[in-house]
Specification:
- This protein is of the alpha/beta class.
- It is built from 12 helices and 8 strands.
- Strands 3-2-1-4-5-6-7-8 form an 8-stranded mixed β-sheet, with helices on both faces.
Amino acid sequence: MLENITIGFIGFGNMAQALANGLLYKNVVKPQQIYASAKNYEKLCKNTREKGMIPCKSTNELVEQCDIIVIAVKPFMIPEVITPIKELLQKKIVISVAAGYPFEKYESILAPGTHHLSTIPNTPVSIGEGIIICENLHSLTKEEYDIVAELFSNIGLLEFVDTKQLTVAGTLSGCGPAFVSMFLEALADGAVKHGLPRDVSYRLASQMVAGTGKLQIETGAHPGAMKDAVCSPGGTTIVGVATLEKKGLRSAVIEAIDEIEKSRK
């Protein structure tokens, strides 16, 4: 189904590149099936041509060449980018990866009848291990939905949520990698402090986090039960857990989510 599909990214910043790189990394599509446009054409050429992707000098050129159009510009730029090409977008599958732009907001700027879906991906899509939050409310046909699902399920977990849950789901999956990266660094620092080499510390911490996450997904076990399974009575792990509780790890993480959600309002 995907061998003849062409995908165009309007805007080719970090998230667009992460999606494109993931599709190539997982061999979902060939490089020549991916097009991109951006304000800085010289930089765009550097970021696309070295991997075999096709740069476009204008959004019009891109839309004419592609079946799926990914809107990947900053949210404040969306109206000015879409308005000149909205008639061309009517016959395309339009996918948004911009935070804060749900279905109804796009309905107010896209031409009537345009088929579109709002999503929020996270950066691990670049290696096929990401999350793509999708809004339940969309205007794709069954066939279009199947194409999009086949395309993106190869590079991450697709999770459909109601519109009112879109931002917090995006916060959890989109901002979470920064929090986990801080945790990885802190774990490694602790090990380095006690003599373990830095590169070894990073590898062990990263694989531990990856494996623990995979274990939860595969088993569906409650995180509390997973924690309990490692904490032997009078053992070393419970000493560490008690210390993290004393220092407020849980409350700090919850408050971080709270503050992000407040900043969106």
